Amino acid sequence: MKAKDFDAGRLDVPAFAQAGAVLSAEEPLAAFPRLAAESAVPDAAGTVRWQVRGELRTPAGGAAVPWLHLQADAGVPLVCQRCLTPVDTPLHADRWFRFVADEDTAALEDEEAEEDVLVASRDFDLRALVEDELLMELPITPRHETCPVPVALSAADPDFDAAGERPNPFAALEALKGGKGSG
């Protein structure tokens, strides 16, 4: 099969790996709704570029196993945690995935494997995998190297400052105590 015979929305992983096929695309950020939802700019005009290559690997004494190599890049405007303005954040994912026959095997082997272990399918959603991998690359605290606007690093509260000018409550008690002794 040729790469054009494979559909990223319903990828036959074993056949794709068997063919050693390559799929790639450059798609708008809006085509990845969960990633687009992270954007600080509604309807951001970002682009997601991805490429996936399939191959079969045969371990010593075993049957051929399907593998995918995913590379994905995107630029997403996130909210800078210092100045609260949008900051263009580059995301990059570069991972290998090994495919196994069922969920139990995947869960068991994924704990000890360096690569990610997924279940082989004839109707695998490759775009969802691309989106998942880019979502995992989102920084916890996005920020500019140098913010484009001045950042206030302290807060002033006039009500708090005015509260410091209240009379001492013990002085009021002292005045009451002094008033009792005179009567």
Summarize the structure.
The chain is an alpha+beta fold. It is built from 6 helices and 5 strands. A hairpin with a 7-residue loop joins strand 2 (47-57) and strand 3 (65-79).
Structural overview:
With 183 residues, the protein is an alpha+beta fold. It is 27% helix and 28% strand. Strands 1-2-3-4-5 form a five-stranded mixed sheet. The termini are far apart. Strand 3 and strand 4 form a beta hairpin.
Please count the beta strands (DSSP E, at least 2 residues each): 5
Low-confidence stretches: none
Structural class: alpha+beta
Radius of gyration: 29 Å
What is the element string, with H for helices and E for strands? HEHEEEHEHHH
The percent range for helix content is 25-40%
From the N-terminal CA to the C-terminal CA, the straight-line distance is 108 Å
Q: What labels describe this entry?
A:
6 helices, alpha+beta, 27% helix, 183 residues
Outline the fold blueprint.
Layout (H helix, E strand, L loop, with lengths): L12 H7 L2 E7 L4 H5 L9 E11 L7 E15 L6 E15 L2 H8 L5 E4 L6 H11 L21 H6 L5 H13 L2
Parallel strand pairs: 4-5
Antiparallel strand pairs: 1-2, 2-3, 3-4
